[in-house]
Design brief:
single chain; alpha+beta; 5-stranded antiparallel sheet; 4 helices
């Protein structure tokens, strides 16, 4: 991962960075999945997600015009947006965001019972991530933001409570911000010199061969596709929050 700074960057200090997180589902669970599916190589890997030097809680605009915000101390969770955090959504964008959230939450009610998700083909990813269950058919269909076909569903591993769904953008495609600055996607970049082997949009555990520096299975990429949550439980960050911050905990 490059350590260069963006050229001609503009910075905006976030005021909404959570001061307390009791559930760090996206940052820990998916970052763990990435880390376990990776192993050290001989050097950093170039990536479309190469984001230069970011400071936690500070939005930085890169040469591609996109704003990136590091949400974790270890660099495992980064938000990406066409809009600066200070920009306000238009009424049309607010209506689009609200409409999509309602549609996705209504469609997701069928997943309140985990067995319903299992019946539709959702599986725990390689047994690594205890929160996210993936539907491989939906992940590899090239479609994004279909309320009826979320790529992931999320459950509390201790109580089996349904937490929400997560949409995945197709590989190599930025997530569509249908609600403008209200629908901010996130991704998990490669960490340092760790390399990741992928089967479509899913990492392949144990596929990296350090002797040949190639993937035994899948293809080598650095960084996950873009992801967007729609929470089924109250979230202080809103229905699309990249993290879960329980209402009243901030």
């Amino acid at each position: 991962m490059s350590t260069r700074d963006f050229t001609g960057t503009r910075r905006h200090r976030l005021t909404r960075l959570p001061t307390r997180r009791t559930l760090v589902l996206a940052g820990i669970a998916l970052a763990t999945l990435l880390a376990v599916s990776s192993c050290s190589g001989s050097g950093p890997v170039a990536s479309e997600h190469d984001h230069g030097s970011l400071v936690r809680g500070e939005a930085v605009q890169g040469p591609d015009g996109l704003w990136r915000t590091e949400l974790t101390e270890d660099g495992s969770l980064i938000e990406v947006s066409q809009w600066a955090p200070s920009e306000q959504a238009s009424e049309e964008q607010r209506q689009a965001a609200d409409s999509f959230a309602r549609s996705a939450q209504a469609a997701a009610r069928r997943f309140s019972d985990r067995n319903a998700a299992f019946a539709e083909g959702y599986v725990n990813v390689d047994g690594i991530d205890p929160y996210h269950y993936a539907n491989k058919a939906f992940i590899n269909d090239g479609v994004q933001l279909d309320p009826e076909r979320p790529e992931f569903v999320m459950y509390d591993p201790e109580t089996s409570e349904f937490l929400g769904v997560m949409f995945l953008a197709p590989v190599g495609v930025r997530g569509e911000q249908i609600g403008g600055p209200l629908t901010v996607w996130h991704y998990h970049p490669a960490m340092g010199d760790m390399l990741v082997c992928w089967d479509g949009a899913l990492p392949v555990d144990g596929a990296w061969d350090p002797t040949t520096e190639t993937c035994r299975r899948g293809e080598q990429r650095a960084g996950s596709p873009d992801m967007l949550h729609v929470w089924a439980i109250p979230n202080a960050l809103g229905p699309f929050g990249s993290d879960m911050v329980p209402v009243g905990s901030r």
